[in-house]
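Please fill in the sequence for the structure shown.

STRUCTURE ENCODING:
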């Protein structure tokens, strides 16, 4: 399910309301340093027909045009969300695009929140981190508690390290949202004690202001992936709930 516009929507989001999306990746392709077995955009190998990234000027122009039209139509915008066909922080213009987006948000829909959905692989870069600190909702992903399990479900590019990602996320001092997919796949089960307990230890280390635990909701490129019910996820995360962590399940 690839987005064919740099700016798309708004779509109705259960978490974000009326959400206007920004895709910083090719409009007819996919670029990501993860190749998750559950990704709704499909495998990386199937999205290589287009590798042209939009520039900051192109994103600014597309966003301004869209916001102008929505304002004239009277269409509400609750969130402007960076969530495209892959990892948004891979775009080299990401910091400048965030600055432009915040300025345009303040001009057209000052009540809207700016959110970034990221796999957290670039947080160790100072310019990316500083840009993420400026948005309302930096939503950072950790699905697996160690590199062995990440290799099974996220299939990251060489050099990825869960430990390094955790260290980088400490720079937020808890002022971010942690997002985690709960699933069952060959060799991996989010609810298995060795996976679940190690993930909860990461949560306790990072102490994010909110945690979003979710499960499979759309077709996946790998077949045979199992999902969890909301009640099952809530039961698995019960120790964290009892410790006062703010957790959303979906």
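FILLED IN BY: designer on duty
SEQUENCE:
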């Amino acid at each position: 399910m690839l987005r064919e516009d740099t700016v798309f929507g708004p779509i109705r989001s259960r978490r974000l309301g009326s959400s206007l999306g920004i895709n910083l990746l090719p409009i007819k392709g996919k670029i990501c340093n993860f190749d998750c077995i559950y990704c709704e955009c499909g495998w990386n190998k199937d999205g290589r027909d287009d590798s042209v990234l939009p520039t900051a000027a192109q994103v600014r122009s597309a966003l301004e045009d869209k916001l102008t039209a929505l304002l004239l139509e009277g269409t509400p915008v609750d969130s402007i969300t960076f969530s495209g066909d892959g990892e948004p922080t891979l775009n080299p213009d990401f910091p400048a695009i965030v600055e432009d987006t915040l300025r345009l948000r303040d001009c057209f829909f000052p009540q809207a929140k700016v959110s970034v959905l990221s796999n957290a692989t670039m947080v160790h870069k100072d310019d990316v981190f500083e840009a993420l600190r400026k948005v309302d909702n930096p939503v950072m992903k950790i699905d697996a508690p160690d590199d062995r399990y990440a290799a099974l479900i996220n299939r990251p590019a060489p050099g990825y390290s869960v430990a390094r990602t955790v260290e980088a996320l400490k720079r937020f001092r808890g002022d971010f949202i942690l997002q985690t997919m709960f699933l069952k796949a060959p060799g991996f089960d989010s609810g298995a004690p060795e996976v679940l307990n190690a993930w909860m230890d990461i949560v306790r280390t990072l102490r994010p202001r909110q945690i979003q635990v979710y499960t499979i909701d759309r077709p996946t490129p790998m077949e045979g992936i199992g999902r969890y019910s909301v009640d099952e996820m809530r039961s698995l995360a019960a120790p964290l709930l009892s410790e006062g962590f703010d957790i959303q399940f979906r």
